[in-house]
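G., before I forget:
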Amino acid sequence: MTSLTREDCAKLDAEDPLAGFRAEFALPDGVVYLDGNSLGALPKATPERVSRVVEREWGADLIASWSAAGWWDQPRTLGARIAPLVGAAPHEVVVGDSTSANLFKTLVAALRLNPDRNVVVGEAGNFPTDLYVTQGAAELMGAAERRVDPDEPALEAALASGDVAVVLLSHVDYRTGTLRDMAGLTRLAHRHGALVLWDLCHSVGALPVELGACGVDFAVGCTYKYLNAGPGAPSFTFAAERHHATARQPIAGWHGHARPFDFSGEYVPAEGASRFLSGSQSLIAAAALEASLDLWSRVDLDRLRAKSLALTDLFATLTADTGLMLMTPRAAERRGSQVSLRHPDGPAGEAIVRALAERGVIGDFRQPDVLRFGFAPLYLRHVDVYDAATALVEVVRSGGWRASRFTAPQEV
Amino acid sequence: MTSLTREDCAKLDAEDPLAGFRAEFALPDGVVYLDGNSLGALPKATPERVSRVVEREWGADLIASWSAAGWWDQPRTLGARIAPLVGAAPHEVVVGDSTSANLFKTLVAALRLNPDRNVVVGEAGNFPTDLYVTQGAAELMGAAERRVDPDEPALEAALASGDVAVVLLSHVDYRTGTLRDMAGLTRLAHRHGALVLWDLCHSVGALPVELGACGVDFAVGCTYKYLNAGPGAPSFTFAAERHHATARQPIAGWHGHARPFDFSGEYVPAEGASRFLSGSQSLIAAAALEASLDLWSRVDLDRLRAKSLALTDLFATLTADTGLMLMTPRAAERRGSQVSLRHPDGPAGEAIVRALAERGVIGDFRQPDVLRFGFAPLYLRHVDVYDAATALVEVVRSGGWRASRFTAPQEV
């Protein structure tokens, strides 16, 4: 594959069954955007949808829209539309609140479902908010926190003590792009009496997720990365049906009440995953998610996965001679939809990312030394990957990045 | 005042120093909107601001906007702009999450600040989410919940036991429109060693709020009612400076971290009210709030209050002969910006609200028997109040509402 030319890439694009989706995104000219794993691109249909909610549903119809426009049910409606993307039943997913808040709610619910155990096991290198939320929830619940490497031997050793209530794992590692064995690790945790909470932030919309088939208990995911719902878009929560009757989350707001319009003084949790809802959520933000889910409802996830693997493989292959260390596994079954490269000199790595941006190739840098490139299969072409890889090779070889040694902007 | 004519009202409008604001709102034709206490009207500047964030900051500039467009600091920037509306210092207010989530965070923080006490006192008739969140937080923290009437004698009796950690009160009662004595009740709670958390949902943007001068500990408010930031817009949290160093809220996400871009594994809470932040918030929803705060930054709150009192007084006076019972205090110092009327037959009251809506007067109905009319002084005129009151009098007298006995839509 190392001898692939730009023309070969153009041929692959011509045969790509997902190629038509690119025209549905508003991508800036002259840019190869490899940061869709941080903030997904804007679907062209989104501005009109957002305007409709702002000007018609809010401006003209005002409070009538709570029922007439389906506002009240929006967290369930959107959840049901995300469900097929994560292998869940429609009533197992609701949309609302941030990823941090939803991790908190599901962690507390899991600890309560497993009251004879008081340890939360997390990943040593997980995304900071997962670590912080776990720290906060464990402290609040009088539980202990244990951090391990997210591989089977380390996890098995941590679980062997028999006191683990819940394990929080990321499906795809945000730094390295490593894809975890959801089925195997879930089985392992269950065998040891622990519940499992999966963070899907870097997998939903990047590959098929099979929460139901894997027997997962709880999951939380992000909609502003691969799902293209806009900056800070609401998160979603999955709760397996078998936990619906008994799971109790701590933020008992009226949107999670069984009969909210009775205005009763006593909290009675709703049926289904709805009991994980709390307060009112932005309907303007929901409009952007609705628009992107219209697009996602037409995506074949197996084709998405095949293209994702082809793009990441192509990039890893074309950049193999740069001297940067590949952190992302080459084995397809262990790879998400990103390629991470390590530079032994962190600030140099950051300067390379900056120099690439000046050439129109947008990746990002993660402390202390990770160059991170995300590949969103709906709007990236093989030729984009070829051009980005060529730019990276040139920047590294020419040393042109040395002129770009200034601080990169904060990115999320 | 009972003999006031429509012409008198038109004269009052001509002299109204706030009259110019009405032209800044997109109000539907032929409607008198008296539900701005539930969902505020759309400012005309909002659609363009929202479009700018969607199409330019997100669509064109993508992740660069986290720093270039001020996205990362938006919860603090917006908080600092809300601060003058509630009598707080800029670093005492942050924006994000729902009212329910913020009540939960501040209740837990208050319980932790007062660890030798384990009772939360709330209002018996508070808005359901306040009751539910209190129930949930108390259960989680092993605290007891006590519900009382929010008057001084009842509160004093509840506080006398000496075990009350925190009192949660609503500044304006959502059903009756009664305004509470924030200074007096806060003093009373403090005298008995309790902290105070105020719910400002029905007062912020309706009257001047003086959190600092009243010595309030924590407060939570809504931006989609009188502040006009759109359906489900984010809530805000006030934490008094004296609690910044020690307050610990339970959802320890990375937006509340002191140095989030270190990506450190240990949670260190940020300075100021920022420690009450958790995860990423919708920047599209934030854009709508930003647009409405541009407008609010030009509002004289004393004039707002004077007009609010004039409008509610006018409506109460003109509808005094309907036979409906006035629930809202006539005394100005005990009245928020709404008028609530009770019908002895609940379903009849609901049908009256519906019949009014058919005549273009939008109020709302709250179970079991409350007709609720909110008066947003920025976009309501005296003639609107006159027309609405006239319509109500006609509907009640003619019995025309009997034809409207169908279920009103859900409203929030």
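Confidence is low (pLDDT under 50) at residues 406-412 of chain B. The first helix of chain B runs from residue 6 to 15.

More on Monday.
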